[in-house]
Design brief:
Structural class: alpha/beta
Number of helices: 12
CATH superfamily of one domain: Spore Coat Polysaccharide Biosynthesis Protein SpsA, Chain A
Strand content: 15-25%
Shape: globular
Largest sheet: 5 strands, mixed
CATH topology of one domain: Spore Coat Polysaccharide Biosynthesis Protein SpsA, Chain A
Length: 337
């Protein structure tokens, strides 16, 4: 095998569960990569899909026999276990992690492999190009909010165009030998597995490199209920990770639970203490003003009046869901299996 970045054997690992409607989008995007198909393999870890996803993958394989695609079982049905199962079934020198509902740009694999070979970082990744799941105004607002700094803080992979070292990246690409240093993904975390993995990389002396030219499309949740469930889960499982790595807390992660806790405390005190009521109203008004200004900015830039109320609703949903999930995680940790 040549050591040229254009020919290094590369394994694409993909966790999957009930993605029949969209799995072909990922496979089509991988088939269209500038990276040589002969140097790629795709390992999909399926968590027991009941919607015909494995059959859809087999149909796609029959039409595209020149790209190696393998499906392995993930009986645990959680993402970190899927990633580990796919890694163990893979053989590539470089591992590129993707999701079943993602769409990497045509040069995603080539740029990822080049960055790894050039040792810009031990794990490298890029930008999520966040797109709405439908054309409904709230879906478009959620996609805009999920890439707005007020919504996601300093998570650069959601909006930045400046390369550099970061604390984490979505998905990521790394040499297989890195696993010998830091181990596989932590299967006790149902989310935040990427962040926890990158924490171990950094603790081992490695660096996480962000390259905005490495891009993939990510489809945001379609409605506020789904968004709230997603961010509540993020907040809850972030606490479980922080129990092990308390020094990794970032201001973007601390502000929502502090804000929610502060609002709850003031709401409880306000019937009895007048300054608490004044503080509650003041905080609520300032927060609402900030959200409305953010919504107006997005609405003007995208020429969509519906985003003026939509973006504030989505950002508030993200903040309160994350904050309450985080607070619940503090008082109700998951029971050991």
């Amino acid at each position: 095998m040549s050591n040229s970045p254009q020919r290094v054997e590369t394994s694409i690992i993909v966790p999957c569960l009930n993605e029949r409607g969209t799995i072909h989008l990922l496979l089509d995007a991988l088939y269209a990569q500038t990276y040589p198909l002969a140097a790629m393999e795709v390992i999909i870890a399926d968590g027991g899909s009941s919607d015909g996803t494995p059959e859809a993958i087999r149909e796609w394989q029959q039409e595209h026999p020149d790209l190696a695609v393998t499906v392995v079982n993930n009986p645990a049905r959680v993402i970190p276990a899927a990633l580990n199962a796919a890694i163990q079934a893979s053989r590539g020198e470089i591992i590129v992690r993707l999701d079943a509902h993602s769409q990497p740009t045509h040069d995603y694999v080539a740029r990822s492999v080049a960055a790894v070979i050039e040792e810009r970082g031990q794990n490298v990744g890029g930008v999520w190009d966040i797109q709405p799941s439908s054309d409904h105004w709230i879906a478009r607002s959620i996609a805009a909010a999920a890439g707005h700094p007020i919504g996601v803080g300093d998570a650069r992979y959601r909006y930045s165009d400046q390369p550099g070292f970061v604390d984490t990246v979505p998905f990521g690409a790394f040499k297989r030998e890195l696993l010998d240093q830091v181990g596989l993904f932590d299967e006790t975390l149902l989310t935040n597995e990427d962040y926890e993995f990158n924490t171990r990389v950094r603790q081992a002396g490695g660096k996480i490199w962000f390259d905005p030219q490495i891009r993939s499309v990510y489809y945001a949740r379609a409605n506020l209920a789904a968004l709230a469930r997603q961010y509540w889960r993020y907040g809850y499982w972030k606490v479980q990770m922080l129990r092990r790595y308390p020094h990794t807390i970032r201001w973007r992660q601390a502000l929502p639970p502090l804000f929610v806790a502060g609002m709850l405390l003031l709401a409880l005190l306000s019937p009895f203490i007048r300054p608490a009521l004044i503080a509650l109203i003041s905080m609520a008004c300032i927060y609402l003003l900030i959200l409305l200004l953010a919504g107006a900015q997005v609405a003007l830039r995208r020429k969509s009046i519906a985003m003026w109320p939509g973006v504030p609703l989505a950002i508030a949903c993200m903040h309160f869901a994350w904050g309450t999930g985080f607070l619940w995680g503090l008082i109700s940790p998951p029971k050991p299996k």
